[in-house]
Amino acid sequence: MATAKQNFYKWHRILGLTALIPVIFWTLSGLSHPFMSNWFRPTIAMEVFKPLTQSKMKPALSLQQVLDKNAITEFRNFNIVNFNRQTYYQVLGKDSVARYYSAKDASLLTNGDQLYATYLARYFTQDSISSIKCITLQKTFDAQYQPINHLLPVWKVAFNRPDGMDVYIETSHSRIGTFNNNTRKAMLWLFEQFHTWAFLAAIGGEQFRIVALLIVVGCMLPSLLSGLIVYGFFWKKFKTAQQNRMVAGKDDKRFVHRFHRQLGLIVSFVLFTFIISGAFHLLVKLHNIDPDEKNYEQLIDRKDLIAGNLNLPVPDSAISKISLVKCFEKTYFQVSTVKKDILYFDAATGRELKDGDKEFAYYLSYFYRSQQNRSEEPKLINEPPVTQIRQFDNEYGFINKRLPVQKVVYPDGENWYIETTSSKLATKVAGIDLAEGFSFIFLHKYFGMSWAGKNIRDIISMLAALGVLVVSLFGFAAFIKNK
After folding, report:
1. SS3 for 280?
2. Edge-to-edge order in the sheet of strand 154-159
3. Distance CA 479, CA 78 (A)
4. How many whole angstroms separate alpha carbon 192 and alpha carbon 199?
5. Distance of alpha carbon 332 from alpha carbon 419, whole angstroms
6. What transmembrane ranges does the database entry give (predicted)?
7. Domain that holds residue 236
């Protein structure tokens, strides 16, 4: 029995020391998360841009007239925007560059996309005074604009202000990706380096990062279990030794070991939930690693546009956005209304496509499901159920950014969320993804305490992380003392 105890102690120490530095990194960065996401999170004056209706923008020229005057025969999409008291056609060219043409005379606006991004950045911040330090087009995610923000490409508009405010703008949909001040930038760096270990991805790629994290987490679980086993089997001996010392009036020279054991028992369940949810999260991420998925792209031929965009059977006062989509080899005007309905009209005949948004969502879900084999076009029979989602819920959370979306439910248990207005896949949720999502938000982020309010939930999660940190430091102190 003594040999078994010694072996458990030995492996508990080895595994504990292996995980010590990672645990310190994770707990300290975890303690910073509520400050970054709640208490020290920067605020912005406006978070949503409400575009003018078409009746207020009053475009004088049709899309066809603008295209013809500029000799544009092919393009990817268009939109009508109004800024600085002028209305423009925002035309996404064949080269995927957005150009702006006056809706009055079809003249090209130089640097139009930058000007519109700047206009939107000033609108969201309500800052018309500060100068713009720089504005850059961002096509990839980085440390300050992370994948959690989803939207790409965006313009990074950096204000010349003491707080170092950066605003990320998606001009194609007139919306904000995120915004950061100097404090949030520092906290983002801290969390990315010490909690998610982004530096490992820079060294060996995303798969290397995940595998390395799994190895460390794999050391933590047996360390926890071995400590519980030692305490469980030998707690009577620990108790007897303590009582004998008290009777003899001897000094407590092993109080560090005792505190480590007692606090370890108290936080063992918390540590267990952190380990299990973290490992599950990493395994699912590893399982879902794929080559970069190709986004749906379309090319519109000017000859397909026979019906005029200004003559559709929808009141101009109800139109908040209008664009084009290609679905089942046909081109349609996609009209978003102020009531958040999305209507489709044949670009050749002007006739409305019944349930057009559902048909397009199904078409896009087929594209994203079968990128590796698109030899056949989808058939309009036996379509999976499609439901519009206008608000976030437990399955499709706010982390996904995009609304409204269409939820396409397939018989194999996969739910595909499609933002039809951008033709983008918002997210895919399969059975394992759903289980992992619930595990992570309840066991790792303590969303089960949301009923008590965000502040209470964050305080409890911080106490849990602090408990794990203190136990780890007491364990290290005990190891040093043994030496």
Report:
1. helix
2. 132-138, 154-159, 166-170, 175-180
3. 66
4. 8
5. 16
6. 12-31, 210-235, 263-284, 459-480
7. 2-41+195-291+439-482
What is the three-class DSSP state of 190? helix
d(CA 119, CA 328): 37
Among residues 252, 243, 226, the alpha carbon closest in space to that of 475 is found at 226
Rg (Cα) of the chain, in Å, rounded? 29
Please tell me the predicted confidence (pLDDT) of residue 398.
79
Query: 3-state class of 317 per DSSP?
Result: helix
Establish if 7 belongs to a structural domain. Answer: yes
Whether 171 contacts 113, CB under 8 Å: yes
The 8-class DSSP code of residue 95 comes to T
pLDDT above 90 (res 414): no
Name the residue with tokens 């190895």: 215
Residue 340: HSE in the Cβ half-sphere, 13 Å Cα cutoff: 10
10-54 pLDDT, tens per residue?
777 888 888 888 999 999 998 888 888 878 888 999 999 999 999
Mean pLDDT, residues 335-358? 95
Q: E strands, 281-318, where?
A: 300-301
**Strand ranges of the sheet holding 319-327, from the earlier edge strand across to the other edge:** 319-327, 330-337, 342-346
Would you state the pLDDT for residue 373? Answer: 43
Number of separate domains in the chain: 1
According to the model, what pLDDT value does residue 6 have? 67
Does the pLDDT value for residue 170 go beyond 60?
yes
The answer to whether residue 353 is domain-embedded is no
Phi, psi (degrees; rounded to nearest 5) at 262 = -70, -45
Residue 132 lies in a domain: no
Between 483 and 262, the higher pLDDT residue = 262
Would the pLDDT of 376 be above 50?
no
Q: Are 191 and 40 in contact (CB under 8 A)?
A: no
Is residue 263 in some structural domain? yes
H-helix or E-strand containing 142? none
Least Cα distance to 50 among 390, 338, 388, 401 occurs for 338
Spatial separation of the C-alpha atoms in residues 262 and 252, rounded to whole Å: 15
* This prediction's pTM: 0.87
d(C-alpha 307, C-alpha 350), whole Å = 5
Instruction: Name the average pLDDT for the chain.
Output: 87
The string of DSSP codes covering 371-424 is TT--SSPPPSSSPPPEEEE-S--SSS-GGG---SEEEEE-TTS-EEEEETTTTE
The helix/strand/coil state of 322 is strand
Q: Which residue has the tokens 């003559």?
A: 311
* Banded model confidence at residue 1, pLDDT cuts 50, 70, 90: low
pLDDT value, residue 240: 58
Instruction: Give 384's contacts (C-beta < 8 A, 6+ positions apart).
Output: 362, 365, 408, 409, 410, 411
CA distance 113 to 171: 7
Asked, as a colleague might, if the bond just before 153 is cis with ω within 30 of 0, I would say yes
